[in-house]
Amino acid sequence: xxxxxxxxxxxxxxxxxxxxxxxxxxxxxxxxxxxxxxxxxxxxxxxxxxxxxxxxxxxxxxxxxxxxxxxxxxxxxxxxxxxxxxxxxxxxxxxxxxxxxxxxxxxxxxxxxxxxxxxxxxxxxxxxxxxxxxxxxxxxxxxxxxxxxxxxxxxxxxxxxxxxxxxxxxxxxxxxxxxxxxxxxxxxxxxxxxxxxxxxxxxxxxxxxxxxxxxxxxxxxxxxxxxxxxxxxxxxxxxxxxxxxxxxxxxxxxxxxxxxxxxxxxxxx
Length: 269
What we know:
The protein has 269 residues and is mainly alpha-helical. It has one domain (69-264): MetI-like (MetI-like fold), CATH 1.10.3720.10. It is built from 10 helices and no strands.
């Protein structure tokens, strides 16, 4: 019987667990913006796009320069930011607190879920005249509209996130004799945080929309008032400059939420 030597070829096994892990490709978004702006500039210069439909991006950039040089940019932006911060902070903080209570307490859920379900579909812009009657045409009505519009989607996102926390983790905490507050603080809130932050992205976008609507009624300064004035004069350069400011504001808020996610959700793999 001849001796036979069994030889095995060792091949590396590729890692298969990273297919659903998103990787950062920030330059792709920048390239998309640059390509779209370049196409718009080329189309308007070549006459493919009518000047009555879309202004040249270069003209919009000049308008930004004029706004900055005259100081009107910061005057409009600072007023809008103060309204947005106060209204959104009030609505989001109360919304998160109410959403957590709905997720944790059965009686609160039974009492408030039907109320939230009734308020959520109401177009918040339609309530602006009512808020003007209640709080006056000054800042109070604007704060109230933004806060109310931010409150309802934040509540829905928060108690949905609390409901989606893995019950196995909660039972494991109970098996280790953790107190109720320890389970909420160490298991429920961290587990619900991804859903809460995702809901905040939507709520802040709604807050920007309501900010513009509120500033179009009885406001001297603000991005919404600036856009309304430009639209009434059919000044497309100023109109698109105001819309661009809102877009930049939305991207900035989304980036801030992303930074908070990376800081608070470092435990996720």
